[in-house]
Amino acid sequence: MRAVLLPVALAVATLAAWQAFVVIGNIPPVILPSPVSTLRYIVEHWDILLTHAVPTTLESAIGFVLATLLGVLLAIVITYSTLAREALYPNLVFFQLIPKIALAPLFIIWLGIGMQSRVAFAVFIAFFPVVIATSAGFASVDRGMLRLCRSLTASEWQVFTHVRFPAALPHIFSGMKVAITLAIIGVIIGEFITAQAGLGYLIIFATARADTEVSMAAIVVLCVCGLLLYGLVALGEIAANRIFSADPA
């Protein structure tokens, strides 16, 4: 209960302080709308917000899944091939150091203004944490367990499925939790640049009209969508741990 009550109490206290600051300071809504007015807008215009939330959430989920698959695949290649590790790892770090937002317009030029450019950009900025975390997970396997498997003439596939992969699951899901947030950021950046729908488009459109209340409402809905996606990843971690902990091998 403490793990739930403490963050909820802090969030309520923050919202109460925000509301009091706006009311007592007589802050104009164009500068900072109050939580009450933002919530009222969400309730009254939930259909518009939902219409824009669907493409953002869908594109973020697709980008996250592709980034996870790509990251795990690259981690497997790096783990099992010294040559691939020496060739790929420095370049992955190099590309990670490039400011991602500077490359967003190039994705629009290369892939167009449709969903594919936003998904590709989300994959580009989200796969790196999965690679690093998964590689660390594969490398953290107990060497004694690996020697035992080889002494029992276990195949490389059996070692991977029953030893390496289950042992790396905590690391993999740690990388996935970071990746889901980066995937959402990637999609939002793409929607800022070119989109006709989505929460990022709604935020930039409302900001251009100085309609801060709409922007704040869209940000709140975006946070809720992000929490839902993050929660799905957390539930997937619990399910995966139960499945592999029940593996008789």
From TrEMBL:
Pfam families assigned to the protein according to its UniProt record, in alphabetical order: BPD_transp_1
A GO BP annotation: transmembrane transport
PROSITE patterns, sorted: ABC_TM1 (PS50928)
Keywords for the protein's UniProt record, in alphabetical order: Cell membrane, Membrane, Transmembrane, Transmembrane helix, Transport
ABC transmembrane type-1 domain sequence ranges: 53-233
Listed InterPro entries: MetI-like (IPR000515), MetI-like_sf (IPR035906)
Residue intervals passing through the bilayer: 57-80, 92-113, 119-141, 178-204, 216-235
Localization annotation: Cell membrane
Protein topology in the membrane: Multi-pass membrane protein
GO cellular component: plasma membrane
Main location: membrane
Gene3D superfamilies: MetI-like
PANTHER family according to UniProt: ABC TRANSPORTER PERMEASE PROTEIN HI_0355-RELATED, ALKANE SULFONATE ABC TRANSPORTER-RELATED, MEMBRANE SUBUNIT
Family: Belongs to the binding-protein-dependent transport system permease family.
Protein name, as recorded: ABC transmembrane type-1 domain-containing protein
Organism: Methylobacterium tarhaniae
Classification of source organism: Bacteria, Pseudomonadati, Pseudomonadota, Alphaproteobacteria, Hyphomicrobiales
